[in-house]
Amino acid sequence: MESWDTQLRKGGLELAVLLLLARHRMYGLELLTTLGENGFVVSEGTIYPLLNRLSGQGLIAAEWVTGDTGHPRKYYRVTGTGLAQAQRMAQQWSEFAASMADLIRSTGGTDRPQKEVRA
Amino acid sequence: MQLESQVLVREFNRRLRAALTSVPNHVRVEAALEVESHVEDVLSRRPSTLPEPEWVAQILSGFGTPEAYAAAIVGQLPPVQVVTVRSGLREVLTAGRDLMGGTGRLLLAVLRGSWRFGVAAVRTGVSLAGAGLRESRAGLKRLADWSAEPRAAAGRSLRGSRSQLRVTLRSAWRNGLRLGRAAGRGLLRLASALGQGLLRAGGTGVRLGRVAIQYGRMVLLAALRLALLAGLAALALSAFLMTLASALAPDLVGWRVYEAQQAVITGVQSLREDWLSGVSPTLQAQFAQTGLAVQTISLSMGLLLTGLFAYLVWSIRRRRGPAVSK
């Protein structure tokens, strides 16, 4: 069950990152914190390689900015391609979630005990 | 950051860079810089009860081991960077080729104009010389005709009334001959002077044509030098402006240009590895993003343009054709 949870979160992580970066640009820690506030608890070792991959695919762009903090920060933002991809993914996710909700509702979910299947 | 914390971060980044041997140097530098930046960001959230080095160690543990983190990065490095770099370099080369093409067309137009002017001057000189010769010949012919006329008139007078008019006619004959000779000499001198003058004018025309060709050649060479200097100055200026823009407003520098720069500096970075090993990743990345990249591109383009200009000068000189000899 724990593995399924992990896989589910990983599957949605890419969409979550794209959606957050579509709002405004963010740096690594800011993104991690925001993801955590939205229920996606991920580590640095997961998020930075993911950002690298998305950047390589042209879905997001990155730039180094030296602000008031005194040290440079790498800010990420969604590109036009990334925005279109996020819209497609969000549509698919909504359809999938609706289908799953229907299935749970029609089958009664986990409220009823399972019936034995006889051969 | 305390010294002990710095040592932890430095050691993590050293192992990270060592594990990232298969990627371009700027990627290694950037990965290490990202770790350092992240630690700096999280550092301010340290619980007051926790010593800083332990807090930094916890932050670093979020990346996993440096080797595992490097493997995650390497496994997801896309080849698209190479394509982007190629595209960026292609744009630079296309711009350089357009610049060369425009300059070449301008120089050829100058050369063609100078050559035509020189040829026109030579033709005029030759034409004037020919006219001088013809005038001289006509002058001599008129002289011969004019000197013969009085002699014939005197002969006819002598045949008509030789006895009565002998003295008068002899006098007239002598006077006529004298007059004819004087007129002939005068005309001869006039025609000679005219011919010589025209011949001189022709010679002057030839010399003018030669000077025009020489002048055109000088203008061409001066234009070549000027174009070369202007090109190099423009490159230096653009390098300076790009450096300034990168330093003052990194947001304005396009990502593709940045990636092209990164690709160019990759070779140079490996040569500077020993020197840079003692420099902080922040400084390394700043070097990679700004001055060195721009200078490298500028130097490469400068050398390329110099070579092309030299080839252009050489090919133009070789095809100059049979000009008027000095």
Walk me through the structure.
The complex is a heterodimer of chains A (119) and B (326). Chain A has 119 residues and is of the alpha+beta class. Helix content of chain A is 61%, strand content 13%. Chain A has helices at 2-23, 28-37, 44-56, 80-107, and strands spanning 26-27, 60-66, 72-78. A 3-stranded antiparallel beta sheet of chain A has the order 1-3-2. In chain A, a hairpin with a 5-residue loop joins strand 2 and strand 3 (72-78). With 326 residues, chain B is mainly α. In chain B, 85% of the residues lie in helices and 0% in strands. Chain B is built from 10 helices and no strands. Chain B is rod-shaped and about 155 Å long. In chain B, 24% of the residues are buried. Mean pLDDT of chain B is 69; it is low at 322-326. At the A-B interface, helix 3, strand 2 and strand 3 of A face helix 2, helix 4 and helix 9 of B.
Instruction: Kindly name the structural category of chain B.
Output: mainly alpha
What proportion of the residues of chain B is helical, as a percent range?
over 70%
Rounded mean pLDDT of chain B is 69
Q: Measured on Cα atoms, how large is the radius of gyration of chain A?
A: 19 Å
Could you tell me the strand content of chain A as a percent range?
5-15%
List the helices and strands of chain A in order.
Answer: HEHHEEH
Q: Strand arrangement, largest sheet of chain A?
A: 1-3-2
Largest interface: A-B, 24 and 30 residues
This entry's quaternary arrangement is heterodimer
